[in-house]
């Protein structure tokens, strides 16, 4: 179906409104769809949030051509660079989706449908010699897969160089999460665990801290190999660049600490089985703990299947109102931007 | 946090001292501690900075001062001084004897110390044979008064002696009547009487045997020497004969070679027959391994056979110089593992029950349980049961009674129950400073064990000679490790006691004031249920006795539940009102109705992949231990031959050096291959996830918010919490209808850390009271109006959930933030020391780092944190037990509990006073001052004794009055 309608270029509104409008004009109110447009280079690009929606509207010259696909039939391979140079192919795929069933493609999901396994975070607030790595253990069967040991490191102090005890990564298990990220290496010195400095703590304490945080582990390391450090001023990251103006390197890495409370809420949700019924996630009781309920749903799905449970339908309906968003951050926009900045998602 | 007092027996005691003047006893240890004990409650403790072994302790005559000699050859002067109304033990001076430059260390190595009765000087005998004189308290060496071996040899005919005769001073003894004469005994057998006024030898005595020790007879006319070959010799001292011959030379356990007699007393009595008391001297071949002290009085002779090496001993006798005879009343023996006091006045020489220094470890402690504020009736019944066990003890009042206890009376009666490896439970009075054994319960009688009843070391009659008599209670050799007690729960209101052990046995007992013979009901709980394909490779369950068993008065078992597989019981809960007992092992948990004697249900918690839990890994280690037991008994200490200081000291230092070297090597090795720790999230498949860590009964809202019901909660090692809804029939139909249980909830904590505590808070956020607490008007009824909350404590987190619909409300993540884990947790009630009407409940938490944290309820805010136990002290941390009012105990050695207090209101610590005698003039006349001192001393001592006597009388009256007993019994039964 082809529809033509007008939008006010100066006030395009929000993506959700636009999405609603599309569903309305096509009379498909309850169908999940993917929305795409062709940019000036002829690439088919997705519209799925306010940012790229606004970007798309701004590129309209004067017409904005939008492609809509039913989500379950979507051919994600259609999106991306050079897609429109193969326009014919794309259009045929888009318009006749049954076409690709004969020729199965490797399906690559939309970014938000990916589950991150690790990320480098807080690049802008850490010294360049440090790296803060977040490992997302949930939902994967991969073991975290690393070992730590005692050792000694050299610090520059007012009294000159001093040898101080430190904690180091001693081994990466092949195929483990830690190794597969490529962000951690043997002999990297562990400086912090989830925002808490490890100096003065014993190996056993640090082990316990890491295991206690294992479902959302954030380790700050000083990499043994300092040649691959992110050089902050020549950043070439493909992130949205929304907060490139964010503050200059601060020497207080503990900023993270303030973020943890909220973030941590997402790292685990206990499960209850009532009267030998279906296992359910234990909800939050008091509104006082303003946490991010929505964050945990996906996690829960993963978690439950991993544990051999089936999530109850009740729970699904409960949460269907909440956006099934792949954001793992809290609702605080400031935090989100801080975190997104410099994020490298490794797949 | 204050660490207030150490209970129990000092670890590795090394020296003993006694002041007949102060009537105080001092014990030194290998770690440099010195502890003084007098009347019950009178205790002082000091610690030498060096942490070196205390070799000797000597009280300065008629002073509140004592001198210690450490194994680094340093001397330390301690004194008791009054400060703020109480006496304190303080180190005043320290001193190391220095020889002339270039002299060998042996020149100044002190072997004997004699504090002179003038109180002004110490005579220090050395390895070189020279005797140095130092002033006290200044420790100034008086060189002109030294007694050199050359000076001694001048007066002795050369054909009898050579230079070597004067090597090593073994003993220094002041003449009992003439302070100007001292007896010097050299190691090779030469003994001289030295005149201090004229600086010369007045007599010399040529002993042919290597000398061990000397003892003056009271009148100074004779002295005794004892020797390495097991002989002792009596020597006359008369003015006319300068080289006397021995009056008597005896080898008491001859004629075959004997071991050394290392110390001897010769005590005179009115009836003329002396008491000859000596340590050692046993026939070397057959009894060389015994630790004995023999007492000979006329035709009576007993060789007291101690359970461990004798460190030292002393005799309490009439110390009044005016008295004509010694008239010994008691013998106090410090053995390596216990203190034994023998009443020498009562025929049969029975032992005296010590009010302190109890050997907590007479069988290794396996668990402890504290019950605060025991109702008087239960207290009296326990004391009464205990007194029936103690009839073989002497009734003599405790003979070491110096000082006055001025601590306020304990605020309440507290019981500490310790479970032991040999299947016994000991009940200790933990109300005050003296941890005193009230009653000992043995569970062994219920079972058939391999223990051979004839295997008794105390077989009198079989061996007539030597007349050995075993004394003491220390017996660390468990007959059957399966008997070990692992969990204890006592309901102080009903007198029900549940104990559970190593082989899955759970016993429920009731207090009975009479002996009784009955059959113990026996049930089995198969915790594996339908799980198939598992094989338990651990120990077998204990065999039970068929038919009725005779039990002595006290706690008598009436129900035995045996878990199958017979794994160690890891958690236990008893609800005395509902008459239910719950128990858990590494396989699951069960609930037993001890009223109807029926198993209500079992729940298997085992994960199918958990093989370790099935095999019972503990079993192998234990059986090895058992098999070693017999051989150990035989070879124990058999190699201890010469305890000569030279040899002993040398060996010890060599061993220490070797150990140090080994440690260093081990350390280096560790550095080469550093310890690694695996970082991995926990999963359901980890080992021992099914291990039941905690069980809890609660009357709460489990299913809906309108009806509360009894419930049972269980928490596992894998972070699972199970809640069972119970239906307990009302009292009138209690025997007619079965108790029913139905699983209502199962909570899986996603962090999967072991659940160590479960607690329900009522509508006022107060923890639910204990069973029967409300019925006894000792607690407000719980609030059933407001909504209840569930607190789950895992090793890593504290979480509060709402009830009955479980939603998470609050949490505190301890491990994620601090890297420490919860080891022990309890609810403690803290009162204000300023006002009586304020008190609050908090969680007292001990972490694996040895810190104690106080966490508020219900908001889970960390209030305060104290370092308490060294984090390396794993057994100390594991042994910690909290009381309900903010105190606690933990083992600082196998035999000692340290008591600590977190509360400002409840503090139990020694506070006592030792009267300072006025220092008489320097022209001190021995006899006169002695009489004065004795007179002065008698007043506080007597009054203390009177008080004690009256207390004892009261107790006696209470327990012997049938009416009182019946009343106690009827009230208790009425309460049930």
TrEMBL record, chain A:
Residues 228-257, 308-347 are annotated as: Disordered. Residues 1-71 form the PB1 domain. It holds the Pfam family PDZ. Keywords: Cell cycle, Cell division, Cell junction, Cell membrane, Cytoplasm, Membrane, Tight junction. It is found in: Cell junction, Tight junction; Cell membrane; Cytoplasm. Residues 234-257 have a biased composition (Low complexity). The keyword tRNA processing does not apply. One of its GO terms (cellular component) is bicellular tight junction. Residues 132-225 form the PDZ domain. GO terms for biological process: cell division; centrosome cycle; establishment or maintenance of cell polarity; regulation of cellular localization. The keyword Metal-binding does not apply. Residues 308-323 have a biased composition (Polar residues). SUPFAM superfamilies: CAD & PB1 domains (SSF54277), PDZ domain-like (SSF50156). Belongs to the PAR6 family. PANTHER family: PAR-6-RELATED (PTHR14102), PARTITIONING DEFECTIVE 6 HOMOLOG BETA (PTHR14102:SF4). This is PAR6B protein. It comes from Furnarius figulus.
TrEMBL record, chain B:
InterPro entries: Lethal2_giant (IPR000664), LLGL2 (IPR013577), WD40/YVTN_repeat-like_dom_sf (IPR015943), WD40_repeat_dom_sf (IPR036322), WD40_rpt (IPR001680). Residues 636-647 have a biased composition (Basic residues). Residues 250-350 form the Lethal giant larvae homologue domain. It comes from the Eukaryota. It is found in: Cytoplasm. Its main location: cytoplasm. One of its GO terms (biological process) is cortical actin cytoskeleton organization. WD repeats lie at residues 47-81, 411-429. Gene3D superfamilies: YVTN repeat-like/Quinoprotein amine dehydrogenase (2.130.10.10). Residues 636-657, 924-950 are annotated as: Disordered. Keywords: Cell cycle, Cell division, Cytoplasm, Exocytosis, Phosphoprotein, Repeat, WD repeat. Pfam families: LLGL (PF08366), WD40 (PF00400). GO terms for cellular component: cortical actin cytoskeleton; plasma membrane. One of its GO terms (molecular function) is myosin II binding. SMART domains: WD40 (SM00320). Coiled coil: none annotated. Part of a complex with GPSM2/LGN, PRKCI/aPKC and PARD6B/Par-6, which may ensure the correct organization and orientation of bipolar spindles for normal cell division. This complex plays roles in the initial phase of the establishment of epithelial cell polarity. Belongs to the WD repeat L(2)GL family. PANTHER family: LETHAL 2 GIANT LARVAE PROTEIN, LLGL SCRIBBLE CELL POLARITY COMPLEX COMPONENT 2. Interacts with GPSM2/LGN, PRKCI/aPKC and PARD6B/Par-6. The complex is enhanced during mitosis. Interacts with DCAF1. This is LLGL scribble cell polarity complex component 2.
